[in-house]
Amino acid sequence: MPIQDAINDLQNGRFVMIHDAGERENEYDMVIAAQFIKPEHISKMRVDAGGLLCLALEHNFAISLGLEYMHRILEDSSIPSQMILGRAKYGDHPTFSIGINHIDAYTGITDIERAHTIRQMSRLYEADGDMRSKFIQSFQTPGHVPLLIAADGLLYTRQGHTEMSVYLAGMAELLPMAAICEMMDSKTHMALKEDEAHKFAQKNSIKIVESTELLEELTVQ
User: Fold this and answer.
1) Which of 10, 13, 104, 168 would staple 36 via disulfide (CB 3.0–4.6 Å)?
2) Which SS3 state, helix, strand or coil, does residue 170 take?
3) Who wins on pLDDT, 129 or 209?
4) Does residue 126 have an active-site annotation?
5) Which of 9, 58, 111, 182 is catalytic?
6) Of all residues in the chain, what percent carry a pLDDT higher than 70?
7) Does the pLDDT value for residue 162 go beyond 80?
8) In the annotation, is 71 catalytic?
9) pLDDT for 194-207, tens place per residue?
10) With 90 as the cut, is the pLDDT of residue 7 above it?
11) Element (H, E) at 144
């Protein structure tokens, strides 16, 4: 399926699914551009995907806000070093940073409040002036939207869902951030397998993007 079809859907505020390579996580994520997020999108990811709903951020934007990777933050804490995940079993370092709520949130976990937190983060990207100060004034941690920091260099450096979703948003000429959620299988209690993922995609008219397709795009640039 042409990758342009998935780009068109992203541009129109629709979900796409991204599958990473079998030698990595071999998982499917539901992905939507952060700037279009609504409570009903949060609900669909919560119900139909069921994994951890996160907000993937472009590297330089995250760093401009003063964000750091969680494993780096923990290295400076009293947490024993043997507990800190430096590399996951599939070979990459985790991209987790802090979790946030928008300052308007009450608990932060509802579909409405998580959508609001993500939407306000997308608006921050387009804000004038000192984004770091606005970030500090507008968001609190700990919170219910885990932030992911894409690797500097995106797919040239790391080929995870974090990087792929941000890269795809960039291809669509959207803000370089996306809400993503791993797809789980309530029958097997594991990650959704290929056949079930394709059945879901077909039933819901969602385009699937393979990591190999995105990597092919790098070679033609």
Assistant:
1) 13
2) helix
3) 209
4) no
5) 182
6) 97
7) yes
8) no
9) 999 999 999 999 99
10) yes
11) strand 139-149
Task: Check 5, 75, 90, 173 and give the catalytic one.
Answer: 90
C-beta neighbour count of 127 within 10 angstroms: 13
Helices (H), 59-106: 59-64, 70-75
Of 191, 217, 182, the closest CA to residue 7 belongs to 217
Q: Indicate if 54 belongs to the active site.
A: yes
Residue 111 has pLDDT above 80, yes or no: yes
Q: Which one from 9, 29, 58, 113 is the annotated catalytic residue? A: 29
Residue 8 falls in the annotated catalytic set: no
156 classed as catalytic: no
Q: Say whether pLDDT at 120 is over 70.
A: yes
Residue among 71, 93, 144, 198 flagged as catalytic: 144
Catalytic site residue from 59, 101, 102, 181: 101
| Cis amide linkage into residue 142, ω under 30° from 0 | yes
Per the annotation, the verdict on 101 as an active-site residue is yes
How far is CA 18 from each of CA 56, 77, 182, rounded to the nearest angstrom? 13, 34, 9
CA-closest candidate to residue 69, choices 138, 156, 140, 162: 162
- Give the DSSP H/E element, type plus range, for residue 212: helix 211-220
* Model confidence, pTM: 0.95
19, 25, 54, 181: the active-site residue: 54
- Quote the CA–CA distance of 62 and 55 in Å, as a whole number: 11
136/109 Cα distance (integer angstroms): 20
* pLDDT mean over 166-179: 97
Cα dist from 61 to 58, 75, 80, 83, whole Å: 6, 23, 30, 29
Please give the sequence-ordered ranges of beta strands (E in DSSP) within 3-138, or none if there are none. 16-19, 28-33, 50-57, 96-102
